[in-house]
Amino acid sequence: MAFRPSQRMTSSLLRSRLNPSTSCPHPSRTHAAARLYSSSGEAPPPPLLQKLKGDLKTAMRAKDAARLTVLRSVLSATLNASKTASPITTDAKLVALLRKQQKASGDASAEFSAAGRQDLVDKEQAQIKILDEYVAGSGVEEASEEQLRTVVGGVITALTSEGAVEGGRAKMGDVMKKLLAPGGPLEGKNVEKSELAKIVKEFTG
């Protein structure tokens, strides 16, 4: 039987998409995101983030609704991340955020399709296409499955030689921490964490 979202779920999704004020941050929040990286003593913003902010102005002039929705959402998420222990400080982290936004739009598209709202499906697909454009043009290297397997195997070998394993088998959490640590083997690369975790699980059991 095809999945049918509950009335409450569908209504909530429809309200969030039909009412931009609930899903798109106010322009003042976008300006706040821009000021976030302008304070003295802070590292300059990632190049991709600078491009997004520039494209926001262009989209506003062109009244490109789909691109405005995407850019405002990403900049708002970047601002929110700045208030946590994991701020967006590199293009690689920003690409990871873009991919997260892609997944959210894909999930929403599936819900709207099940609800028979093709108009909203089209909007979500348009946003996914825009996100694809930024990911593809980011210049961030995307690690292949083969590369990930090689890196994971190397990290497990290193942990074993350091005596950092128990019972002759490395723990999945320790391997993931090593892989994703600042300065680690995957720094600066576009990596899907769920795919990485799947590979690590295969190695560690």
Automatic annotation (TrEMBL):
Region Disordered: start-end pairs: 1-33
One function term, GO molecular function aspect: carbon-nitrogen ligase activity, with glutamine as amido-N-donor
Main location per the UniProt record: mitochondrion
GO CC annotation, single: mitochondrion
Biased composition range(s): Polar residues: 7-25
Highest taxon, organism lineage: Eukaryota
Database matches in SUPFAM superfamilies: GatB/YqeY motif
Keywords annotated in UniProt: Mitochondrion
Subcellular location: Mitochondrion
UniProt KW Lyase keyword: no
Family per similarity comment: Belongs to the AIM41 family.
Listed name of the protein: Altered inheritance of mitochondria protein 41
Source organism of the structure: Anthostomella pinea
